[in-house]
Amino acid sequence: MSTTVPPRPLRVGMFGGAFDPPHWAHRALADTALSQLALDVLHILPTGQAWHKSRTLTPSAHRVAMCERAFAGLRGVRVDTREIQRNGPSYTADTLAELAAEYPGAQLFLMLGADQLLAFKTWVRWPEVLQRATLAVANRGVNIGVDADPNQPSVQDLSAVDIPFIPLAMPLQHISATAVRAHVRGGSRRFPDLDVLVPEGVARYISEHHLYQHSSA
Ligand code: ATP
């Protein structure tokens, strides 16, 4: 007699960010999430009008092109431009509602860094986000600015966080997009080469398109 095993629900991740530019920590986070959470698909969502960022972002076409390069070769990754195309501010709750409709019965996961977890209760409709998705969090150094000393890492303290999340098992990555932009415009000499901070395709794209040479932050 043969028994049929019911198919397991699809495991779908979303990872949003300004990705201005995407860097090695973003790729490491996606790579870790794909394997640790056994994701079938991971949507990478460059933000449109990020409601929580005050600086003007680099035009979305560049950020999308850099995401294609930054996450290239990771199985199951889709660079998804829906938040850019959406009119008005973009909210994670809306994107999760769309993904839930597109993948009926799937288990949804939301990837984020520790700084975003600590700010999570400021997110629009955060209880709905929690209801729809399991949070998966990469820890992040507190000391991540341009002048950060990589020998003195100081990790975000998440012990007081009272919302459920899965910690992503990845080594701390002391990189931020702010530090990459500062490096390109010459504000930081800490790292010798851009491709220490960003995947090679992104480094080449930044250089070919003269990005971040005059950015203010
Ligand atoms: P910026 O320096 O411009 O604020 P960023 O480096 O934080 O940018 P984002 O595109 O804003 O990059 O980040 C997208 C997501 O990736 C966020 O959830 C953020 O917490 C996470 N993230 C970014 N850098 C790291 C890192 N070094 N370690 C862990 N998570 C990170």
Characterization of this structure:
It is a single chain. The protein has about 220 residues and is α/β, with parallel strands linked by helices. It is built from eight helices and six strands. The protein has a domain of about 140 residues: HUPs (Rossmann fold, 3-Layer(aba) Sandwich). A six-stranded parallel sheet has the order 3-2-1-4-5-6, sandwiched between helices. Helix 2 packs antiparallel against helix 8 and helix 4 runs parallel beside helix 6. The longest helix is centred in the N-terminal third of the chain and has 13 residues. The mean pLDDT is about 90. Adenosine-5'-triphosphate binds next to helix 1, strand 4, helix 5 and helix 7.
List the helices and strands and how they pair.
Blueprint: E1 11-17, H1 24-36, E2 41-46, H2 60-70, E3 77-79, H3 82-85, H4 92-102, E4 107-113, H5 114-118, H6 126-132, E5 133-138, E6 166-167, H7 177-184, H8 200-208
Parallel strand pairs: 1-2, 1-4, 2-3, 4-5, 5-6
The chain binds adenosine-5'-triphosphate.
Bound molecules: adenosine-5'-triphosphate
CATH fold category name of the domain at 11-144 and 163-173:
Rossmann fold
What structural category do the secondary elements indicate? Answer: alpha/beta
CA-to-CA gap between the ends?
66 Å
Strand count: 6
CATH architecture of the domain at 11-144 and 163-173: 3-Layer(aba) Sandwich
Q: Which consecutive residue ranges, at least 5 long each, have pLDDT under 50?
A: none
Broad CATH class of the domain at 11-144 and 163-173? Alpha Beta
Largest sheet: 6 strands, parallel
The H/E string reads EHEHEHHEHHEEHH
Fourth-level CATH superfamily of the domain at 11-144 and 163-173? HUPs
Percentage of residues in DSSP E strands: 5-15%
Shape: globular
- Work out the radius of gyration: 18 Å
Question: What spatial order of strands do you see in the largest sheet?
Answer: 3-2-1-4-5-6
Provide the residue-averaged pLDDT: 89
Total count of helical runs of at least 4 residues: 8
- The helix content is 25-40%
